[in-house]
Amino acid sequence: MCGAEEYRAGILHVDMDAFFAAVEQREHPEWRGKPVIVGAGPHERGVVSTASYEARKFGVHSAMPSREAYRLCPHGIFTPGNHSLYSKVSAQIFDIFYRFTPFVEGLSCDEAFLDVYGSYKLFGSAYEIGEKIRKAIREELQLTASVGVATNKFLAKLASDMNKPDGITEVPTHPREIQRFLAPLSVRSIFGVGGMLAKELVRIGIRTIGDLQNVPLPTLVSLLGENTAFHLHSLAFGLDEREVVNERIEKSISREYTFGVDETNVEVIRQILLELSSDVGQQLRAANKYATTVKMKLRWSDFKTITRQRTLPFAICDDFSIRDAALDLLMQQNLSNPVRLIGIGVSGLLDEPNPRSPQLTLFADPATERTEQTLKKERLSKTLDKLRSDVLDGGDIRLGISDTH
Questions:
Q1: Less Cβ around it within 10 Å: N or C end of the chain?
Q2: Is 367 part of a structural domain of the chain?
Q3: Residue 260, helix vs strand vs coil
Q4: What does the pLDDT look like over 357-381, one tens digit per residue?
Q5: Whole domain around residue 183: which residue ranges?
Q6: Is residue 246 part of a domain?
């Protein structure tokens, strides 16, 4: 017979509550308690990035067209947001996570999985650690987070959504109790079950996770195929063997801009690309990373989307190198068609500009080495960051570029 120790919870999913909007309400006390909508303007072609809980009461949600959000909530406060500030606050949140465990897997700027199995002796149970994290975020950053506590990632993420905002939910740890906990929930609660699959499950009489638990696996395989059946069957019983990936390195940094009217003026498109490039460079330096690849994204008026990328000869973090590569990629395209959206990003992120040893670079091609000119560009870019920061400290000034993610 298994003891209670075998079923300890040790995985947390921490999810900030309406993160961008909450930061805006913190920065603007007069906006607290009011519907705040971060994203494109109410009369712009673009989408909502984040809506405060006050705005959600009117049906506004992320990824909704901003014009629709305005129709639902015309008295809402629309703001393009301050993504440099959000990046800074995100870093502060993750610093809090790392106080409790080195095993942190960021899913985005405002949510992460934490493995705290090794932290019990220092900080108490997983539930107690979740409460301490929520308290630190509330007291130090004046923001709220919701936490799910469970034995694996699937259950923890499921739990973090159950008592939002500013809540904590712990899933039972014994397999039979987990099964009972999951049974009444909709099959849409299962990771990977989207609209089409949910309709198919309903068609065959499966509406809840309990319904799914009652279908023999061979029957599921015959109905849905082997891969989908095994995936659903495992999660229906709360089984998830994925580990928390201990990775602080971001995979990429990117920004996009949706034009209010499909744009044909090459100079306007070029100027927006330059602004996006500078913003990506600023985020790259704020993360203390160096990039080896620059990517450009274009969406035409017919919604056809293309991406182009360039691998750089050495890792960079300055605005000028990003802008040069981005413009080069842009000028290789036929811009006779109207442009709906443009984006720029960097990937292949490194902690150091040149991870190779000095011995290996002794006879390297000078064209692939960082030069004094490169260092000057980096110093100038960091000086511009400082100037931007000083200006922002003195007044709330934004670039006016809305994030369409």
A1: N
A2: yes
A3: strand
A4: 333 333 333 444 456 677 777 877 7
A5: 176-236
A6: no
